[in-house]
Design a protein that fits this description.
76% of the residues lie in helices and 1% in strands. With 460 residues, the protein is mainly α. It starts with a helix and ends with a helix.
Amino acid sequence: MNALLVICGLGFVSLLAEIINVKKGLTAFIAIGLLAAGVLIIMDWDTSLHYFSDMLIFNNFAIAFSALIIIISIFWFWMAKDFFGAKAHQTDRSILVVFTIAGGIIMVSFSNMAMLFLGIEILSISLYVLAGSSKDKLSSNEAALKYFIMGSFATGFLLMGIALIYGATGSFNIITISQHISSHTNELPGFLYGGIALMLIGIAFKISAVPFHFWAPDVYSGAPTTITAFMSTVVKIAAIGAFYRLFSFCFLPVQSSWLIILQVITVLTLIVANVTAVYQVNVKRILAYSSVGHVGYILLAFVSNSATSEGTIFYYLVSYSITSIGAFTVLSLVEANTGSTSLESFNGLYKRSPFLTTVMTIIMLSLAGIPPLAGFFAKYMVFNQALDHGYVGLVIVAVVTSLIGVYYYFKIFGAMFFGEAEGNQLSIPFFSKLLLIILTALTLLIGIFPDLLISLFEIR
């Protein structure tokens, strides 16, 4: 809880910085504040503290996911330092990002439906503005408008679902709801299941699962690259954490009513995202569909063992987030030098920047699930868990779509190594190079020694 208060305090400091016109060093101050918040949240490990009349609960699950959000946010601030370079918008952007992080932490620690809604809205409203923060670009304005309109519809589904569940159980508290469902199994009204279905639609939109993913490729490609990186990592961690907390606990007693639907969504997400990515000619859109595809593997981990699969999901999110931040860092550097995110902008990158090519190769291999990198072990854990619980058919689909994923990742390899070089050598700032070295080392470390992470959090 102290970490959440610190992060909210950083938002108010950003507001004051605008009022008193003190902006120098603000981004560094926020990064240091996030580091302090990370230390505070880790210090709460092995506690289970309730706040605001049991509306928030910080147990090990919430602490682990909150810590991951904060750590990835620090890496993101490191990557996105140029995004805050324009002093005219520095405080505006800082405020929006900080409160997005606060909303994400609320989403992974809620124990009351009202707090879930509050967290989603704090996160979403900030993102609507951030997606359109490149005001001089039509694509950014279009992305913000699409995200706002479709996000509003998804919020409507979510709110209607919450209302129906409240009508059936008389409570917003997820513990009370779960207990009521368990004790009234044969007396549950039909509209309770309708409420669960509506909430599933609303949350599926937030995690960009098929068929509620249509906004993601356009918003991801239209938004500034740094914001796309933020949405595909920090925001996705928060949304999946909220999804897991809701369906693995609150609605677990009626799992049979939604599990088949979720299995269908999982299969559609795996197939549609990976097949569609093959036809993309823009690296940003490839990474957007890749992000949707990885949701499918996370959902596979959930449906195969929804009660105790948080360790697998957490490890997958760690490996995916680190590699995704690295991929978008490389993409932003290429975009800064070429002015484009198309596949052609990576042509001959091996000759223009052997360092970026090496880093991007390792990252793409990890995302494709090639050993001994983190992405391989993440997929191995998911497939192994699914096989242990008899989901052979789903694993076959996941393996086939993973092989399809290798193809579109290798399209980037082809451009880097065999494309005709255009332009001069790419200049890479020292701090960007240091960030990429750290991210690459982490990708190798948690892939070769996965037990370091698994044993640290001990959530299996």
